[in-house]
């Protein structure tokens, strides 16, 4: 009842996600050993870019954890892990600049980021409720429950799709701003692309899984509706 031919594609996508997560860690570990040509720490890069984009009031803070770097839109704060904050490697400056990219998106009201912020509360609720409704619907063969579950799951998938351009745009900004500011040089480009590209791949793989799952649920729903007629 629960197996569907599309499960094979979902398993492949899941494998891609595992590989992408491995790629992020391996890329970061490798380029964390390679000094950036600009000689700045991640914190210095973040501060420099923020100051030069009229954001001197956005703090740059250090937080515990590895690869725990993020931009907090509520506090309007860039938070960097210790390795990134103090590091002078290509990996450190790349991640720092990427998070600053989100701060600049926020300041300039970048469309996809604004949309993501607006949909987040709904997507957060939907992602928690959808699996329960779908499970109950399949167990009880109640297609009305499955339909509501699919609707909520669609909101969660939409949030992931919106996240993709947000992440890619932040990485694109990071590369341009670091090059323009002399924080990296052409010799660093390969490493920057590897680090940021691997991170983006994790978002892409996770989104692919969700989209395939949504297609599977839709197929089952409409097939069940047809059989009931």
From TrEMBL:
PANTHER family: MEMBRANE PROTEASE YUGP-RELATED (PTHR36434:SF1). The lineage of its organism: Bacteria, Bacillati, Bacillota, Bacilli, Bacillales. It comes from the Bacteria. The keyword Oxidoreductase does not apply. This is Peptidase. Keywords: Membrane, Transmembrane, Transmembrane helix. InterPro entries: Zn_peptidase_2. Pfam families: Zn_peptidase_2. The chain crosses the membrane at residues 119-140, 146-170, 191-212.
């Amino acid at each position: 009842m629960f197996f569907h031919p599309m499960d094979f594609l979902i398993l492949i996508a899941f494998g891609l996600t595992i590989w992408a997560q491995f790629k992020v860690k391996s890329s970061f570990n490798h380029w964390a050993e390679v000094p950036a040509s600009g000689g700045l720490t991640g914190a210095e890069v973040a501060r420099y870019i923020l100051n030069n984009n009229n954001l001197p009031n956005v703090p740059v803070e250090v937080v515990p954890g590895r690869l725990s770097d993020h931009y907090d839109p509520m506090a309007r704060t860039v938070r960097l892990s210790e390795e990134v904050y103090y590091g002078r490697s290509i990996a450190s400056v790349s991640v720092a600049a990427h998070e600053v990219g989100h701060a600049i998106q926020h300041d300039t009201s970048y469309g996809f980021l604004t949309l993501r912020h607006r949909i987040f509360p709904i997507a957060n609720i939907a992602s928690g409720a959808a699996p329960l409704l779908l499970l109950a619907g399949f167990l009880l063969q109640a297609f009305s429950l499955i339909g509501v579950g699919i609707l909520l799951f669609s909101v969660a998938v939409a949030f992931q799709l919106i996240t993709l351009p947000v992440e890619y745009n932040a990485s694109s900004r990071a590369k341009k701003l670091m090059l323009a500011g002399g924080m990296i040089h052409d010799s660093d480009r390969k490493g920057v692309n590897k680090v940021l590209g691997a991170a983006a791949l994790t978002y892409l793989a996770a989104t692919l899984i969700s989209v395939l799952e949504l297609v599977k649920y839709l197929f089952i729903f409409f097939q069940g509706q047809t059989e009931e007629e």
